[in-house]
Amino acid sequence: MKVDSIVNGIVLDHITAGKVMEVYDALKLDKLDCSVAILKNVSSNKMGKKDILKIDNDFDIDLDVLGYIDHNITVSYIKDGKTAEKKHLALPERIINVEKCKNPRCITSVERGLDQEFYLANREKQIYRCIYCDTKVTK
Question: What mean pLDDT is reported for the chain?
Answer without folding.
Answer: 92
